[in-house]
Amino acid sequence: MKWLRSFNYIFLCLAVLSVTACSTGSNKTDVISDSADSSVIVYAKGFSIRYFSDYTQVIVNNPWKSGSIYATYFLVKDTQTEVPEGGVKILVPLKTIAPASVTHYEFLHLLGELNTVTGICQADIVYNKEIKKGIEEGRITDLGDAFHINVEKVLQLSPSALMMSGYNQKDANLQRISQAGIPVIYNNEWMETSLLGRAEWIKFVAAFYDKSQLADSIFSNIENRYNDIKQKVTNIKDKPDIMAGSNFRGTWYMPAGRSFMGQLFADAGSRYFYSNDTTTGSLPLNVEKVLRDFSDADIWLNCNFATLDELIKSDSKHALFKPVQTRQVYNFNKRMLPSGANDFWESAVARPDLLLSDVIAVLHPEILPDYELVYAEKLK
Questions:
Q1: What's the whole-number average pLDDT of the chain?
Q2: Which 8-state DSSP code applies to residue 318?
Q3: Where is the Fe/B12 periplasmic-binding domain (predicted)?
Q4: What is the domain partition of the chain in residue ranges?
């Protein structure tokens, strides 16, 4: 199934990112003392923005080495502007961009900058209609696999910047691209452990378009909606037991307690077996372990199958779980194309308010009785 292969590709990419990225990044820690102002970053841990009279300094923190810097950018409106050493000077606002990850699209959409996209990676997993149309019309170039990006195509396209997930800064292909004068912008939103932290990276993207005020306004609205809906279940007493994830080739990847998905479960008013776990990312478990801990769960979320029959055929043990027997199994595939492109991977990153609303509507339908699910869908 194309959609399942696409999901597996994305999942494995994120798994590889979490392993390979820890060995990369710069340790340069240039300090500039005459900062005029700093952008207020509330939830995100991965970046900071400081404003100076002639330029803006954007720092990407190294999430795998506390206190060190992954990348530094100096944003200028005139190429003649002098900036400190130890960073990449970028002319803003960007005229064109090549975002390598689908998780970057919604930020550009909310900022009204999708028209600047001239290159992407893996056209077959793109959901966004505007980007798909650009690909079909030849205005947007497919640069291949993000892990093995087609350097020649990037150089020929020559975007104002290439936006990448920060998994391997010393990658030879990215070094060639940088040496050719194309800035590589590392967007590490995927490393945040909170939903609002991931969404706050819209401020990071906005800095490269000189749209910080717009980003602040957009994020504030999303934050308020998220917290308003979260408040509806804060004092709820009847919390269903939930399970999540899927069995992939004998290994069940369950959200860790401090992962953004683990936080989503907590904010939605549920009981989750690993809620007290202090790790991030995913917990690789065998099916027997999951059966012991989750066989009597009330609801199964983020199950990456389309139907219950398909789920059971993949492994007969799935039929032993209570949510399968009571038909309370949900995926996040409602907005998925036959190709496997899934809007859950795209817009949900920037719209945690919608994702939280979906999960609350599933767990506590009485709270949102007329709500129409955006990403979640019950398995048939």
A1: 90
A2: G
A3: 96-367
A4: 2-95+152-226, 233-378
